[in-house]
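Input sequence (100 aa), recorded before submission:
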Amino acid sequence: MLPKRFGRWHTIYTRMNRWAKNGVLDRVFEQLQLEQIVRIRIEAVWRMEITEEQYARIKDSLPLQRGNVSLSNLQVLNAILYVAEQGCKWRGHFTGFLFD
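Predicted structure, token format:
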């Protein structure tokens, strides 16, 4: 279950999907590893959430936010990291479902 602090699961999923198709996620995860902010390993068991300071070091690899967006790129990135860490399934989230 995606915690409430990350916002609506559908917003996170939509942006993650767009970033994946446009190659943004590849660039971001490469930069996260180069900056030694996140180490991607299959056996990872630690909490993956980056700080604003860490985000400032990789923000240039993300697209500029335009228009009326409800979530920052940092929030979306942390939600994606949360899903990767927890193994959440997007299909398990329903509109109107209560988050913890």
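Checked by second reader. The chain is about 45% helix and 0% strand.
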